[in-house]
Amino acid sequence: MRKTYKVIPLFVLSVLCASTAFAASSPTGLWGTPTPISNHPNLFWNQSEINQLRQMILVDQSPQHLVDAYNTHHKGKMAVTPPGNYHSLTTAQQNQNYSQPNVAAAISYMIEPTTAKAQAIKNALLAYDGLVVKGGGIEDGYSAFATTLMYDLVYNDPVMSAADKSAMRAHFNQAAGINNFLDNDDGDGKIFNKEGGKRVEGYINFWTLRASASVLYALCSGNQSRVNFWLDSGWPHDDFVVDGNETGNRF
User: pLDDT tens for residues 158-186?
Assistant: First the structure.
């Protein structure tokens, strides 16, 4: 299923979010077995779809609104390297100054790839890898959406060495475990709502972003167990809850 990701004015990003429709006893593998991506690009678009987009935007120049959106928001954009004090910035600063521009840069590279764009993306990815992993969601300027997209699209470019790819897979593997907030312990019981028989944390939109980030990380991690945790049909495991309370430290 693909949903519109609002900070990206051009393309539809498929943000996979976990459903609360399955009970803890749901059998695993009911819909098959999702696996980490091994044939890049394949996170949001595969190579065939990318070729179609290039044909529409660069050759056919139709539909016009797609061409205009690309030219306005993505054409010529270069990736931005996050600074060492990235985590001292506000979520808005992280998102507006780094995550959004880097998604735009990834799409620019996807449609019109150049070595300079690829190198800038690599530099940004390795800089993110050098930061403390926070989970890629609301606490991290939604960086998961930028880093995984950049990685998936630049994966086959010659600028990315085997060591670079290995480092990023390790980064994503660690990040995919940060938001494992599903737990049997409901704390003081004050932060949960009843939705469809499941106990859901009060700020469900925040948790949805965290879960979405974790899905992307898992798919790029190379770790089957991470993918199983976030995408297996038995999700959401025992309960859809988090330890602590709304003002406490969840991480």
Answer: 999 999 999 999 999 999 988 655 443 34
Q: Is the pLDDT of residue 249 over 60?
A: no
For 50-105, write each residue's pLDDT tens digit.
Answer: 999 999 999 999 999 999 999 999 999 999 999 999 999 998 999 999 999 999 99
Q: Which pTM value belongs to this model? A: 0.78
Give the residue among 206, 197, 203, 125 at the shortest CA–CA distance from 166. 125
- Alpha-carbon distance of 232 to 213, in angstroms, equals 16
- Unique residue bearing structure tokens 């910035």: 89
